[in-house]
Amino acid sequence: MTFALARAFPALAALPWTTVGMWPTAVEPMDALARELGLAAGQLWIKREDLSGGVYGGNKLRSLEPLLGEAQAAGATRIYATGAFGSNQALATLLHAQRLGLEAGALLFPQPHTETALKNLIAILGASRLVRALPHWSWLPFSMGAERRRATRAGVRSVVLPPGGATPVGTLGYASAALELCEQVAAGACPLPQRIYVGAGSVATSAGLLLGLRLALRTGRIRAMPEVVAVRVTPWPVTGAFRIAGLAARAGALVSRQLGSTLVGGRLGKAELGVALRVTGAQLGKGYGFATAAGEAAIAASARTGGPPLDVCYSAKVMAALMAEARAGGVSGPVLFWSSKSSRPLPPVDEAALAAAPERMQRWIERARRGLGAHVEAKQLPPAA
Ligand SMILES: Cc1ncc(COP(=O)(O)O)c(C=O)c1O
Question: N or C: which end of the chain has fewer CB within 10 A?
């Protein structure tokens, strides 16, 4: 089955695209949580991106599909992801690229110790031996080039993805997700949201949603443009509104080039794309990867009301923003929570994989285990689904 972007614009079926997720992800009401927040039944909805993959899901599978398609079309046999030690992007890339027969590795930098990051890093180390530990995020640009050159010298054609897979091509995956949502609205599965709450880290998700919704509006698939509320999990300027709208416009240029811009009603400029965007930094706390009290309360609220498990780094901050605005009386129409963190159990990992890990990572794991007091052992990870 083709992807939603190509169902809407058949000429886009020519884009290289490798399916790794299970689509469409469901849309469901969150009536129990709505009640707690003083909202009417049918006003709060969730898009279950957390269930997008059988092995490992989450929003990252969206950008992986065009990125893996592009890499395979270019004849690459090895792909590297980049990000923090607990990167969802890295874990998703390793697990899904290897299922396609590609070699996969990751270049990762340290982040604050949290249980989710610790579990992810253990799973990353269990998934690949091609994992490098950088001392700091600032080493990334140099290391990405060095890794590419090392692979070339070894005769391997490789692709090194930027953090979050946030390229115009990757962003098309999230534009496709927006069009999938519009199909669900048209089929009566949920109302057209007035507002969508989504995390903004590398900003491909929020940029792609803006683009896909705008394409849907221009072609009469939806009657009004939802507001995209991008909840910062990384600070400005990475998550500046100009960067989100800029990435949406660059992805839009790819669409226009492929379709001929008349088909989508002319050029998709930054100003038009940015008009439905609101960025909030109200839940960022001390910064990327740091837990917040409001996030912890959101995790508890989701668990109490039958929602998915949320993570402190991303989805808890998004839900905390939604809850705060609802409680302040700022929600008047249907709103949608973009549930981006995989809720699938992680694959089990043997302790031996940790012994072979880069020393810097072993030290980080030791300190994280000590600091968290949570006995997150490789062998205690739940079995794969
Ligand atoms: C679970 C989760 N939610 C949200 C985001 C934010 O998405 P983006 O990086 O596209 O802004 C990420 C990014 O890594 C993520 O892993």
Answer: N
Residues with CB under 6 A from ligand 1: 58-60, 88-89, 164, 199-206, 314-315, 340-341
The verdict on 268 and 321 lying in the same domain is yes
Nearest to 104 by CA among 68, 134, 65, 146: 68
Query: Domain residues for 26?
Result: 4-59+166-338
Tens of pLDDT, residues 305-340: 999 999 999 999 999 999 999 999 999 999 999 999
**Residues contacting residue 217 through CB under 8 Å, at least 6 positions apart:** 224, 225
In DSSP terms, 131 is beta-bridged to: 106
What tokens were used for 365? 């794991």
User: Do 268 and 298 belong together in one domain?
Assistant: yes
Q: Note whether residue 385 is domain-resident.
A: no
Q: Does the pTM of the predicted model rise above 0.85?
A: yes
CA of 370 to the centre of ligand 1 (A): 27
Distance 224 CA to ligand 1 centre (A): 26
